[in-house]
Amino acid sequence: MTTYKGACFCGTVTLECTGAPSRMGYCHCRSCRSWSAGPVNGFTIWAPDQVKITGGAEHLGTFAKTPRSERQWCKLCGGHVMTVHPAGPYIDVYAATIPDLPFVPSMHVHYAETVLPMKDGLPKFSAGGGSALVAEG
Ligand SMILES: [Zn+2]
Ligand SMILES: [Zn+2]
């Protein structure tokens, strides 16, 4: 199985993702935008046992605004690493955190909240994956 190596901005927190992500896409929700300070977040979804922190775990901070999402970042550089969704359970490793993984998005989620419309022909779910579809504008 393929292993993809990733790291935070400064390289102290390192991780490995093994196998293939179950989903990849873009999240347009306000929480992701506010947390990432970007107009959209590229996500890759993994089962918890596919993701392993391989270095700097003691520097990994966690903030849970709601119990659904434990957002994790490196306390040394502030670089974002991933969001653990304990209720899934699944882990969203931000696509930018694992540059070696070919990012092949298949959907947009929370598109009803978008501030950056994208015409790319991919399905655009109003909320989470499987919710009502929004037409491309
Ligand atoms: Zn760092
Ligand atoms: Zn989001």
- Roughly what is the average pLDDT, rounded to an integer? 96
- Share in helix: under 10%
Number of helices: 1
The distinct bound ligands, ions and cofactors come out as:
zinc ion
The computed structural class is: mainly beta
Total strands: 10
Quick summary:
This protein has 137 residues and is mostly beta strands. It has one helix at residues 30-36; strands at 3-7, 14-18, 23-27, 41-46, 51-55, 60-66, 69-74, 80-85, 90-94, 107-109.
Explain what this protein looks like in three dimensions.
With 137 residues, this protein is mainly beta. It has a domain at 3-23 and 43-103: Metal Binding Protein, Guanine Nucleotide Exchange Factor, Chain A. It is built from one helix and ten strands, in the order βββαβββββββ. The protein has one helix spanning 30-36, and strands spanning 3-7, 14-18, 23-27, 41-46, 51-55, 60-66, 69-74, 80-85, 90-94, 107-109. The strands form two sheets. The chain has a seven-stranded mixed sheet with strand order 6-7-8-9-4-3-10. A three-stranded antiparallel sheet has the order 1-2-5, with no helix packed on it. A hairpin with a 6-residue loop joins β1 (3-7) and β2. The longest helix has 7 residues, at 30-36. The mean pLDDT is 96. Bound molecules: zinc ion (ZN) (2 copies). Residues 8-10, 12-13, 74, 76-77, 79 line the site of one zinc ion.
